[in-house]
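Problem statement: downstream parser choked on a complex file, so we are re-checking the raw output for the MRU run. The parser issue turned out to be on our end (a line-ending mismatch), but while we're here, posting the original submission so the record is complete.
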Amino acid sequence: MKTFKTLQWSGGIDGCLELTDQRKLPGEFITKKCKTVEQLYDAIKTLAVRGAPAIGVAAGFGVCLAAQETEKLKLPDAIKRIKERADYLSKSRPTAVNLSWALERMNKAAENFLLIDPDGTVAKLQKYLLSEAQKIYNEDVEMCRMIGINGESFIPDGGAILTHCNAGALATAGDGTALAVVFEAQRKGKKIKVYVDETRPLLQGARLTTWELKQAGIDVILICDNMAGALMKDSKVKAVFIGADRIAANGDVANKIGSYSLSVLAKEHKIPFYVAAPSSTFDLKIQYGAQIPIEQRKPDEVLKFMDVQIAPQGTNVYNPAFDVTPAENITAIITEKGVIKCPTKEKIKKLINS
Ligand code: MRU
């Protein structure tokens, strides 16, 4: 049972977005208020809110913040301004498609408002957009619930699984994606042990996933990323479960850097490799993984460990935030609509458009 809100809108059309500041966890539990589009842009960029579905939900509310700037404008100008601000927000992080998915949906809602109420007021538009953003939030909660239900049977009772980064409640409005599956298995009474990759450089596994799993009373063992191979060789894990930031039409999956290596290790050791993601993470306009934009982050994230310098200043750094796991390394993709085993373009199209 989720004991905190990853994010929520507080108040009416003149309200603000409240986020659990994930940069501070697990040391401090702090709620951050985003009252402007700039503040939200910064919160997304610096990972105060993170995880593909959570970024999408936050962006939906970001458009409501943009709408607050349009009070003195005529309706068509207000909509133009909102779209410009949505475009600005879409540049905060490039890889998770949920961000542009939510922004496009909000833009369409604004256009739709103009069609159904051309003489409407900006206040009415703001109300309409807030209800659309709230819908995105509620749908995300429901998608997580269904992913849990659809994936639970893949969790081995009494066995251990391995996860990477954080695909839990902190990454969504609901219970998470990969971790929703774990939580559902726990609800069903299964005994589960979860190995968690620390997930360098920003330690989402060590800081966030262990925090969530411990709160839920799940047996959790933290490992350094380079220990996964040895763990598999020693037959200590029965399956790998990860989330996704963008899934191409052919089933290639972009997720946190290190996911690809895990998929190769899993294949070598004949361990099933599952990806759990909502349909909002599929980007059917992108044909295969190499076309997915991969975010490159600051060298300091690698040069430092929790703000302590660990390599000589000026050392060259390679710091992609994500990598791509080819579809052929994936045993199944678990979505809220159902499970796609051995994903192919045809199977994905059929399920996502269903
Ligand atoms: O850089 P982050 O922390 O936003 O990366 C998050 C991930 O890679 C998650 O695994 C992914 O977004 C899925 S979250 C349900």
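For whoever reads this later: The first helix runs from residue 37 to 45.
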